[in-house]
């Protein structure tokens, strides 16, 4: 297969050409598949570097079924109505598919499919450990460079992905619904700390008002801001009917303004870049250990009592870094 002309693709993506955007995201997704894929990924990363950093990246997380996809879809509508260009990344670490959309999401997003101010993409990890960690930031850069004002990242709120969405987003929205992941459960799951904005979706259901009160009470106990100066709002919504979406957009805009005013957005981006560099480096070290280190021989010497594991680690580190 001929190698893609990456600078040309980036140029076309910057003009908003949907096919070029899709192709670039495919390239970063397949970066782990082969040496050629890795070379393309690096070429894309290099070509995008000067063009990213403008979009407001909003992560939406929460338990399955809480209404993340529905909320994402109504947010797209509300943001488009304000004239903003919107990107959507649906990130599902458990999905066996890649490149294609999750069917439900595609159906719901159908109304936006013909709007050239919207780019929608589903991503999966294909079981690659840490796959999300490197592919998703690059996909975000593609959407950013393509002129998206806002990029919405929907992540299944289970296990590590909650943490990963924080590493990706400028603003993290945690969705809860009455009867599933109420305030107390959420506190146990450690989901409260990561939120910049809370949404209590399914506000048409019994118990929603109580969940909103519980959360607001919890926020008031720690001053609401975890000492950082941002009062974390709790927004009730009925995403299925589009209710509360204007309040949610207002909360997202307010958070972005607060971040820009105090330098928080830059701090978060620096932390994110550090995490990304670290992930890439660790991945590289791991690959070298697998490829051509003397690990099996070192293990034999540890088992034989000739070497302790710390000394063995020193030798291994020396052999993989060349220092
Ligand atoms: N009653 C009610 N149902 C909703 C609301 N928002 C979404 N749903 C429904 O909840 C189900 C799960 O929604 P979905 O957006 O797929 O959740 P996700 O798994 O978090 O992405 C769907 O059947 C939605 O139609 C809401 O505000 N009220
Ligand atoms: Mg969903």
Automatic annotation (TrEMBL):
<comment type="similarity">
    <text>Belongs to the SIMIBI class G3E GTPase family. ArgK/MeaB subfamily.</text>
</comment>
<dbReference type="GO" id="GO:0016301">
    <property type="term" value="F:kinase activity"/>
</dbReference>
<dbReference type="Pfam" id="PF03308">
    <property type="entry name" value="MeaB"/>
</dbReference>
<dbReference type="InterPro" id="IPR005129">
    <property type="entry name" value="GTPase_ArgK"/>
</dbReference>
<keyword id="KW-0808">Transferase</keyword>
<protein>
    <submittedName>
        <fullName>LAO/AO transport system kinase</fullName>
    </submittedName>
</protein>
<keyword id="KW-0342">GTP-binding</keyword>
<keyword id="KW-0378">Hydrolase</keyword>
<keyword id="KW-0547">Nucleotide-binding</keyword>
<dbReference type="GO" id="GO:0005525">
    <property type="term" value="F:GTP binding"/>
</dbReference>
<keyword id="KW-0418">Kinase</keyword>
<dbReference type="InterPro" id="IPR027417">
    <property type="entry name" value="P-loop_NTPase"/>
</dbReference>
<dbReference type="GO" id="GO:0003924">
    <property type="term" value="F:GTPase activity"/>
</dbReference>
<dbReference type="InterPro" id="IPR052040">
    <property type="entry name" value="GTPase/Isobutyryl-CoA_mutase"/>
</dbReference>
<keyword id="KW-0143">Chaperone</keyword>
């Amino acid at each position: 297969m001929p190698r893609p002309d990456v600078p040309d693709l980036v140029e076309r993506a910057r003009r908003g050409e949907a096919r070029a955007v899709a192709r670039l995201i495919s390239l970063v997704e397949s970066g782990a598949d082969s040496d050629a894929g890795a070379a393309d990924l690096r070429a894309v990363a290099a070509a995008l570097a000067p063009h990213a950093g403008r979009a407001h990246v909003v992560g939406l997380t929460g338990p399955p079924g809480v209404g993340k996809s529905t909320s994402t879809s109504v947010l797209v509508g509300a943001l488009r109505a304000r004239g903003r260009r919107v990107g959507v990344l649906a990130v599902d670490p458990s999905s066996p598919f890649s490149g294609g959309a999750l069917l439900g999401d595609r159906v719901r997003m159908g109304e936006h499919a013909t709007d050239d101010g919207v780019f929608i993409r589903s991503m999966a990890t294909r079981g690659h450990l840490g796959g999300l960690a490197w592919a998703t930031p690059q996909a975000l850069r593609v959407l950013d460079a393509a002129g998206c004002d806002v990029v919405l990242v929907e992540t299944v709120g289970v296990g590590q992905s909650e943490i990963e969405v924080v590493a990706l987003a400028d603003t993290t929205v945690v969705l809860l619904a009455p009867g599933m992941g109420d305030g107390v459960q959420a506190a146990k799951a450690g989901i409260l700390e990561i939120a910049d904005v809370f949404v209590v979706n399914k506000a048409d259901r019994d118990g929603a008002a109580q969940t909103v009160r519980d959360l607001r009470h919890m926020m008031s106990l720690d001053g609401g801001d975890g000492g950082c100066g941002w009062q974390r709002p709790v927004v009730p919504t009925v995403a299925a009917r589009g209710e509360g979406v204007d309040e949610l957009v207002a909360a997202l805009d307010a958070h972005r303004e607060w971040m820009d005013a105090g330098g928080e957005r830059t701090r978060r981006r620096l932390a994110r870049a550090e995490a990304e560099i670290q992930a890439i480096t660790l991945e590289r070290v791991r690959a070298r250990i697998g490829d051509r280190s003397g690990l099996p021989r070192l293990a034999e010497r540890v088992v034989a009592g000739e070497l302790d594991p710390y000394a063995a680690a020193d030798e291994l580190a020396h052999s993989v870094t060349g220092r």
